[in-house]
Amino acid sequence: MTIEASAGDIAPLQEAANRALRTGNPRGAGVYFQRALLLAPERLDLWMGLAASQRGAGELVAAVASVDGALAIEPRFFPALLMKGSLLDALGRTAEAAKLYGVAVQLAPPPERLAEPTRRALDRAAEVHRDFSSSLAEALGAEIDESASSLGRRAKIFVDAVAGRRRIFQQDPIQIHYPGLAAIEFWDREEFPFLPELESHFEAIRAEALAVWTEGSPDLTPYVHYPPGAPLDQWAELNNSLNWSAFHLWLDGALVEANAEKCPATMAALNGVDQPHTTICSPAAMFSILRPNTRIPPHTGVANTRLVLHLPLIVPEDCGFRCGGETREWREGEAFIFDDTIEHEAWNNSDKPRAVLICDVWNPRLSNEERDLITRVMTTLNRINGGTSQMSQSL
Questions:
Q1: Burial class (CB in 10 A: 0-12, 13-18, 19+), 379
Q2: Which of 68, 82, 201, 301 would disulfide-bridge 394, Cβ 3.0–4.6 Å?
Q3: CA-to-CA distance for 290 and 213, rounded, in angstroms?
Q4: What residues form DSSP beta bridges with 250?
């Protein structure tokens, strides 16, 4: 039988419970919270009050059960997760505590919004989770790490993720997602037979980039250029800024003829690259210039049907690139290909500019028939959208 209760019925019980806590009587407070929960078992705050009372009385196992009552109502409730982690920690159930602490740390509000006792509890949560992850990694041992490394990058990522040394990243395309394509951060070179030929033209491509790239060149344009009123989010600092600039060769599927004419060797080399050709979408190709002490913030690209190729041309020290859980240094003349629908970022912490040739390539796991379908779908979408596209963004 359901007991109908009003706030007027519960308030005196809750007030009596809080008064008992203030006067150092946690067991008495627990009795009042239990009575209140008989009237309103859906009240998350009552479950938390009961758990706090039981913890104060040293009844830690009972307190865990009460926190579970709160989590049954709201599974991602940060205070309940943190409290349960601390209770399990006090009970010596370290592995369980560490897992809950890890979730609590991820869901925690900014530190400035937390009371000092909660900040201390959160610091403890982070410490326990970090120590447990380290001990797990150590338990896996050098033998397993070596075995995983011998099996290749995929096996190493698996072991690192199990050990808590690595986040698991998924594809998060802004616009286009083709199902069933693997989420691979950096792709193996063997899947792109055209790479050695492209790299063989490195010196000529680099020379052309140097010839057209001069400080203040009118042919350089800000890579990020949102119109007034558009939400900028992480792009506010780089919007309409030459700190990240581009010399476009292909833009939104159209040849930038004036720029292409200045770079015949680069254009000839790009002819051998397996690029998509879709109206108002692809191909895209450019020299990307990142000024000193500039960072491109974490972001994701538009479509997982294409991947992104980087051929580093001018790379001073203290430059780097991260895609998902792997960070790489650019090496001049050595191309790599990554999935830009996985979170990635780049930085130039040096006092010199960095230049990279960037272009899009087909995802090699797509059949010719699938490529044709994607091309037709994108052409139709662009026609419906009035000839606008985002497909070249986020390279």
A1: middle
A2: 301
A3: 12
A4: 255, 285
Give this prediction's pTM.
0.70
Tokens 């490529």 belong to 371
- The pLDDT value recorded for residue 363 is 96
Residue 353, both tokens: 């500019």
Residue type, 290: L
CB atoms within 10 A of CB 6: 9
Q: Could you read off the pLDDT of 142-194 as tens digits, one per residue?
A: 667 666 666 677 777 777 777 767 778 889 888 889 999 999 999 999 999 99
Question: Across the chain, where does the E strand assignment appear?
Answer: 221-222, 244-251, 254-255, 285-290, 294-299, 306-314, 319-323, 326-328, 336-338, 344-348, 354-362
Contact 360, 275 (CB under 8 A): yes
d(CA 359, CA 362): 10
State mean pLDDT over 74-102: 91
CA 316/CA 314 separation, integer angstroms: 7
Q: Which region among 94-108, 129-143, 168-182, 239-253 has the lowest average model confidence (pLDDT)?
A: 129-143
> Apex CA 78: angle with CA 134 and CA 21, to 5°?
115
Within 10 A of 310 (CB to CB), how many other CB atoms are there? Answer: 20
How far is residue 315's CA from residue 353's CA, in Å, rounded to a whole number?
Answer: 8
Q: 80: helix, coil or strand?
A: helix
